[in-house]
């Protein structure tokens, strides 16, 4: 077989198929492979006219169809299937060739795979891809890791198929080995938090505001023309305006209220715990999904006493809606701030040298969390590349300051009406913890010293100290 393809894609389910079509639509010849050949043939039959494809069935044929250095993209189910596919293709490759894993792999797996393939001279490029099925076809946000050398060869192809904002590609080299998959993982963690916050806003507008789903869809549409302008707000309006054809009920009412997850949000929280980064809004979003699925616990708690929601008057509901918009925006700033802190701490831990402004820039288009807001984050890092927190940026600081009274009103109202708002309230608690002059952490340290002689530091002098709590006069000693 002649080596005519600039890129090959193996794994032709929703993502791989559309990425392959996107490459072909940009003029690249694309070799195709899938474990089950019928998917390859279906793609050719339906979309073969869109560009130059080389359909293959055997791994040897697939590799032989690729120009050197070979660029072989894997779009299969993350986890063991990715290792299976690597083991199948790696022996057929030569030094300088590239394997690009565009699946949602755990970055630790990517680091392991990159190390192993580097020993054979093959570049392994763990690449985050976001945008879902449509994004894959029309322009996703792409987060490649791996070596700078591999990016020099691969970058132009990925940039060509990525989304564009102001003419700039939503793709950049994130950093070595697992950096791309790490950043994609945090993207998904933020995605979980954003979705949970939007869900809480919807619940409040419905149960306290007394609005029906189509009215809430209108509110979201209005918000989508302002500072909350984002893909997730846009699709929420579409979902809420949709009527179920079978029952005539609002579609949202016929969907079971048990949220599922594939794992990237959970990984974000697990890794955040290891890094010691307090991503509390993301964690609450993960826990909210898991508690929604605990039907046994929900049945056990259902009849317990609590406040019930009492809809407000129309006039009060209008004021309340404005408060909810402020609370949603303020909480969103916190969730993104936590995500960025995690990216920067991960970058320091693994020596990746990630550019925080570049991450904001490539998330402005193509990805699920794309939002007008990301351009503001990009601008904040452009103004101060060493920004410790988004809230150190004057504009974000002023905005959250302006929103905080409404935010408190919303969290208090939710508590009074018995509406769970774990993400709104944890975001507010995070804000208040970090701005507090003194925290009860002092008491925690004293308790730890009492029961475990763990020592404490004093406010008035240097050093570590221990109080001998069991002795009568409780003497303090230097530790
Ligand atoms: N769906 C989405 O919105 C997004 C998905 N992703 C990630 O992209 C990747 C692809 O996702 P998606 O398109 O949804 O497809 P799936 O995750 O559903 O994976 C299906 C593909 O994996 C192949 N596959 C599964 N097991 C094996 C195996 N053991 N050996 C070889 N091939 C195998 C299937 O082949 P076969 O046809 O033979 O069964 C099929 O091509 C995943 O890692 C996913 O996490 C990333 C961003 C968004
Ligand atoms: O990567 C994605 C979007 O960015 C995928 O859609 C992912 O599956 C979303 O996560 P989950 O299924 O856990 O909600």
UniProtKB/TrEMBL annotation:
Substrate binds at residues 104, 130-132, 187-188, 192, 262, 289, 448, 454. It holds the Pfam family 6PGD. GO terms for molecular function: NADP binding; phosphogluconate dehydrogenase (decarboxylating) activity. The active site is at residues 184, 191. It comes from the Bacteria. Its EC number is 1.1.1.44. It catalyses: 6-phospho-D-gluconate + NADP(+) = D-ribulose 5-phosphate + CO2 + NADPH. InterPro entries: 6-PGluconate_DH-like_C_sf (IPR008927), 6PGD_dom2 (IPR013328), 6PGDH_C (IPR006114), 6PGDH_Gnd/GntZ (IPR006113), 6PGDH_NADP-bd (IPR006115), 6PGdom_BS (IPR006184), NAD(P)-bd_dom_sf (IPR036291), Pgluconate_DH (IPR006183). NADP(+) binds at residues 11-16, 34-36, 76-78, 104. The keyword Oxidoreductase applies. The keyword DNA-binding does not apply. Keywords: Gluconate utilization, NADP, Oxidoreductase, Pentose shunt. Pathway: Carbohydrate degradation; pentose phosphate pathway; D-ribulose 5-phosphate from D-glucose 6-phosphate (oxidative stage): step 3/3. SUPFAM superfamilies: 6-phosphogluconate dehydrogenase C-terminal domain-like, NAD(P)-binding Rossmann-fold domains. GO terms for biological process: D-gluconate metabolic process; pentose-phosphate shunt. Residues 180-470 form the 6-phosphogluconate dehydrogenase C-terminal domain. Homodimer. Catalyzes the oxidative decarboxylation of 6-phosphogluconate to ribulose 5-phosphate and CO(2), with concomitant reduction of NADP to NADPH. Belongs to the 6-phosphogluconate dehydrogenase family. This is 6-phosphogluconate dehydrogenase, decarboxylating. It comes from Streptomyces lydicus.
């Amino acid at each position: 077989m002649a080596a005519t393809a600039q890129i090959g894609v193996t794994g032709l389910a929703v993502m791989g198929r559309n990425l392959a079509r996107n490459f072909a639509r940009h003029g690249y010849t694309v070799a195709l492979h899938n474990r089950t050949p019928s998917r390859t043939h279906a793609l050719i039959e339906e979309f073969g006219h869109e560009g130059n494809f080389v359909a293959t069935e055997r791994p040897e044929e697939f590799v032989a169809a690729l120009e050197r250095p070979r660029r072989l993209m894997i779009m299969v189910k993350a986890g063991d299937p990715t290792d299976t596919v690597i083991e199948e293709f790696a022996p057929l490759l030569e030094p300088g060739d590239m394997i690009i894993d565009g699946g949602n792999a755990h970055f630790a797996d990517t680091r392991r795979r990159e190390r192993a393939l580097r020993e054979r001279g093959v570049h392994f490029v763990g690449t985050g891809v976001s945008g879902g099925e449509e994004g894959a076809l029309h322009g996703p946000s792409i987060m490649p890791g791996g070596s700078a050398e591999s990016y020099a060869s691969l970058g132009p192809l990925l940039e060509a198929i990525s989304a564009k904002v102001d003419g700039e590609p939503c793709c950049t080299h994130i950093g070595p080995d697992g950096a791309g998959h790490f950043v994609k993982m945090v993207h998904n963690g933020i995605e979980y938090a954003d979705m949970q916050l939007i869900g809480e806003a919807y619940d409040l507008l419905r149960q306290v505001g007394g609005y029906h789903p189509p009215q809430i869809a209108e509110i979201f549409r209005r918000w989508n023309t302002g500072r909350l302008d984002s893909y997730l707000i846009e699709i929420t309006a579409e979902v809420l305006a949709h009527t179920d054809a079978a029952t005539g009920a609002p579609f949202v009412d016929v969907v079971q209220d048990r949220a599922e997850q594939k794992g990237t949000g959970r990984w974000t929280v697990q890794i955040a715990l290891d890094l010691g980064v307090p991503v509390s809004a993301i964690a609450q979003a993960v826990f909210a999904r898991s508690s929604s699925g605990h039907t046994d616990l929900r049945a056990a708690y259902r009849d317990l006493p609590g406040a019930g929601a009492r809809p407000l008057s129309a006039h009060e509901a209008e004021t309340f809606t404005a408060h909810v918009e402020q609370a949603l925006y303020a909480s969103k700033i916190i969730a993104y701030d936590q995500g960025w802190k995690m990216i920067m701490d991960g970058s320091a831990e693994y020596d990746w040298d990630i550019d925080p402004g570049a991450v904001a820039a490539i998330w402005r288009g193509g990805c699920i969390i794309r939002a007008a807001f990301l351009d503001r984050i990009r601008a904040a890092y452009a103004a101060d590349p060493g920004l410790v927190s988004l809230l150190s940026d004057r504009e974000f600081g002023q905005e959250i300051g302006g929103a905080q009274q409404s935010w408190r009103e919303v969290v208090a109202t939710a508590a009074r009406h018995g509406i769970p708002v774990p993400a709104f309230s944890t975001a507010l608690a995070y804000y208040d913890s970090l701005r507090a002059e003194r925290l009860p952490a002092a008491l925690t340290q004293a308790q730890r010293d009492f029961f475990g002689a763990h020592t404490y530091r004093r406010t008035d002098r240097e050093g570590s100290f221990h109080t001998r709590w069991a002795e009568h006069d409780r003497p303090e000693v230097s530790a």
